[in-house]
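FYI - complex with (R)-mevalonate, inputs then prediction.
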Amino acid sequence: MKKSSNISGFYKLGIQERRELLKEFADLSDEDLGAGLSLESGDRMIENVITLFPLPLGIATNFLINGRNYLIPMVLEEPSVVAAASNSARIARKKGGFHATSDDPVMIGQIQLTDVEDPSMSRIKILEAKGDIIEKANDQDPLLVKLGGGAVDLEVKIVEIKSEAMVIVHLLVNVKDAMGANAVNTMCEAVAPMVEKLGGGKVTLRILSNLATHRLARARAVFDKDLLGGDEVVEGIYKAYKFADADPYRCATHNKGIMNGIDALAIATGNDFRAIESGAHSFASLDGYHSLTHYEVNENGDLVGSIELPMACGTIGGATSSHPVAKLSLKILKVESSQELAQVMASLGLAQNLAALRALASEGIQKGHMALHARNIAVMAGAEGEEIDIVSKILVDEGNVRVDRAKEIVQEMRNSST
Ligand code: MEV
């Protein structure tokens, strides 16, 4: 039987019940679910460790991507984000879910050549030796080459800075299922002397670019107008998108909302979320800072959303392989390649953006935040089981989300039931 990620009321379950459901969905053992980072392992990851810093890992439900069901692990500190993603995924599901694609995992390594006498000739000579440079790069990583990856191409451009011209070489490397920084940096350092000899001048930087324009991920989905709340909400979302696309002040927040989801999944899977952030915003800045998502209204009045952004994420190497919770996340996702993970990332980013715009264009985002806050207050006031929902609803309806009021309500409920 195919397991569906379409789970209603997941949020109403207790932690143990959610874990049981997840065990069933992703074929997990108790040991898998008990995963956690030890202080000793943390000490091997970075320098000067003194303690660990746990964050909650929540599960976004309802995702259907390219016909496959996904439960998506998300690590972050901000309330409402996981619920918002799940809700968008539920809406997208009605019209077939997300359709996502991703490029081959090709990263760019940059080699900077300065003090070049004749930049045009330098460029030509480096390009003439493209085959030799690629061969030298591939000598550094026979395993990657064996797996079908490795350096695949070379580009050379001249960058004019005031009166000086620099020659910049881009080594394009297919890094397969890794994020790829180590492989690319090693190759760039190895071929730098060749580049220097061919091009003249002096090599300075040899480093990966986080603007991974050859490694883009895309997703699209149709969001049913009735589930969104009707024509007015659709129009509001569309106008909100247009606002972001035209105004960098709004666009920064709009794109931040997209990254709420993507970063949370990047952290859950042990990926370098700073690299992904940097790639996303620099990509959005090409030709003027713009929205990473795009929306149209179709002939039925439904909203058609899409997203495209660089996605340098890996499923092997670094913390993805060494952090026990990252390994658990990858097991929950059951992704088979970095490209598949990139597709989930893009779909989640689109879902997150849609949810934010929908809330902003209708009731505003504070209501959702308040509902969650009210649940916490109800629990703090001693509410248990079904009482939690009832108390939090009364708090929100009264517009008075305070512990003393929650305590009164709990007391009144208990008195009236005895
Ligand atoms: C908050 O973390 C994210 C939002 O501000 C995104 C947006 O405004 O689109 C809600």
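Residues 78, 253-254, 256-257, 260, 356, 360, 365 surround (R)-mevalonate (CB under 6 Å). Strands lie at 57-65, 68-75, 99-102, 106-114, 150-161, 164-174, 202-209, 216-223, 293-297, 303-310.
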